[in-house]
Amino acid sequence: MAQRDLLTFNSKGIYCPQAQVYLDPWKPVHRAIITHGHSDHARFGHRHYLTHHSNVPILRHRLGDIQVQGVAWGEVFRINGVNFSLHPAGHILGSSQVRVEYQGEVWVFTGDYKDEDDGVCTPYVPIRCHTMITECTFGIPAFKWKPQQQVFGEINSWWQQNQAEGKTSVLFGYTLGKAQRILRYLDPSIGRIYTHGAVENMTEVLRPQVKLPPTLMVTRETLTADIRGSMVVAPPSAHGSPWMRRFVPFETGTCSGWMAFRGARARRSTDRGYVLSDHCDWLGLLRSIRESGASRVICTHGYTDIFSKYLRELGYDASVENTDYEGEKEDLNSASAAEST
């Protein structure tokens, strides 16, 4: 990119030369603004972290004793003449977009985001800008999400059916974000809700900020007879592991945007697939870009080539930049960093 650009991309991350600050850098830097707590965006080793207040406990839980400052939504902080502010991204709890303004030029880095209000995190707010840096994890027309109320109705009905058949229900979702969204809308009147230790530990960090039902962590002492007919929420990496043996007989379900692909459920060997993502679908991406008023769009992580080509056909100045962000990993059975397990 030309030096005139307010934000550039280099080997360490997205960089603001005027402010000498990085946004979600993937290599250690002196000063980093962090959009959210998933480990492809929030990495260990930076000297100074700045993020939204609600993301501070998440970063400390995951990264340990770090030097981190929290700011409020819309609070302007000035670095070397550049005005920065954080705005809700709607991805997970504490997720932010970063607005960057200098000499009348406004850029927005969305991080990961979704424009559906999930009732758990602060809803996404479109921010007017000249240039928008957007993910496009699900940036093809095949991805179109159902309303989450319908999805959770299906999940609770599945749980009830399994319970009637004497089976335990095991539902897989990312430890940070997806798991708490699942917990928020499970119907506790059906039965007990158990969690994998990784899910339980993260949930305890988030409980002060979001209303969640009571949960019981699965331990060595948990008896199969006691858990039968219950719901278990676990990270994708638990699927197929010895940890699962105590739940026999059980059925499994996976919550992911990738479940919209025919055959995805079979490839993961799960009994049910629920299309539930913490990212925008195709229409959500297009709507968000339109509402930003941006004339220039930079696409990162996802279907970048297809999505940027379509934007150019619509008249946008659209391009692609490579990053180390992973979005919602398609290989849900791997213990990847993006799973936050």
Automatic annotation (TrEMBL):
> At the top level of its lineage, which domain of life is listed?
Bacteria
Give the organism the record lists: Algoriphagus aestuariicola
Q: What is the protein name stated in its UniProt record?
A: Ligase-associated DNA damage response exonuclease
Identify a single GO molecular function assigned to this protein. exonuclease activity
Q: What is its EC number?
A: 3.1.-.-
Q: Where are the transmembrane segments?
A: none
**What's in the keyword line of the UniProt record?**
Exonuclease, Hydrolase, Ligase, Nuclease
Kindly give the SUPFAM superfamilies that the UniProt entry links to this protein. Metallo-hydrolase/oxidoreductase
